Amino acid sequence: MHSIPSSVAQALQRRIVSGDYPSGSRLPPQRELAESLGVSRASLREALTVLETLGLVDILPSHGVVVRGQKFGAEGASAERMHRSFATPALGTLSPRQLIDLRLVLEPGWTALAAARMHAAGLRHLQWLQQQLAHALARNDLLSAAEADLHFHLLLAQLSGNPGLMAMAGQLEHAIGHSLRLPFARNGADDHPAHEHDAIVQAIAAGDAAASAEAMRAHLLSAARRSGIDPSAPQPSQHPAPEPLPEPLRYAPISFRLVSISESEGVFE
User: Fold this and answer.
1) Which residue would you say has higher pLDDT here, 255 or 167?
2) Computed from CA positions of residues 77, 81, 87, 92, in that sequence, does the dihedral angle turn out positive or negative?
3) Which parts of this chain are annotated as the region Disordered (predicted)?
């Protein structure tokens, strides 16, 4: 079931693709648009953010929302938008590079667990999501494609059977969704390597945990490159250099002398 912002984004995408809102045109003011769609302005803003991430619109302060249409690559996705940080509820604000790094740590692990614990119903669900993704890409429905992609990744966390990983995936759901939309913004529906998902599903169907993890890792690295992110490049430090440790404390040398038994009488009484 679609959320309200997702349904609003779908409605606006249809109007953009159909030409009701042609490329270069400006959408109606947000208050007017929200009223015409019967939704709150908060839901509309969330929907517009999704469309901006996909490269369909530009949200320009003091100028409104401008339609970019079905243009991708350098024209469709500005460098500023592609590298915008994303706030997560539990882990603070992460840049796209930091989010990819985090996903590279988490997702191959939960994919391996899913492969080891897979059951027939779970495998059918994964295959169904693959079909939904393929159908959405065939009709250039980027929103539905991105949603099917997200549900595929989140289902693998669920199929891991690990409550901690499932909870972490839930905390990261919106951030992962944002990350998954970035390649679509640069390349549209033409450059989504569905064969990478196929490799993951095939390894899982074979019960090969190691191959499943490696297929997921290869998929994430490929998605990063399609988003203009090089995970192997050194990342500038986000924190100032630590202060040098203080010099060790210098203690005065300890001196002592042996005392006779008679001298020590009464000391420990």
Assistant:
1) 167
2) positive
3) 227-248
Task: Classify residue 173 by burial, with Cβ atoms within 10 Å: 0-12, 13-18, 19+.
Answer: middle
- The confidence score (pLDDT) of residue 209 equals 98
Closest to 50 (Cα-Cα) out of 8, 93, 88: 8
In this structure, which amino acid lies at residue 129? Answer: L
**CA separation for the pair 78, 177 (Å, rounded):** 19
Answer whether residue 242 shows pLDDT above 60. no
pTM of structure: 0.69
Angle at 232 between CA 230 and CA 238, to 5 degrees: 85
- What local confidence, expressed as pLDDT, does residue 79 receive? 46
**Which two tokens mark 258?**
């042996």
Q: Does residue 72 have a pLDDT over 50?
A: no
Looking at residue 90, what DSSP letter applies? T
d(CA 56, CA 72): 8
- The pLDDT of residue 51 is 85
Say whether 16 sits in a helix, a strand or coil.
helix
Count other Cβ atoms within 10 Å, centred on residue 2: 12
> DSSP secondary-structure letter at 26?
B
Written as six digits, the tokens of 203 are: 């390894």
Can you list the alpha helix ranges (DSSP code H) found in 38-95?
41-53, 73-76, 79-82
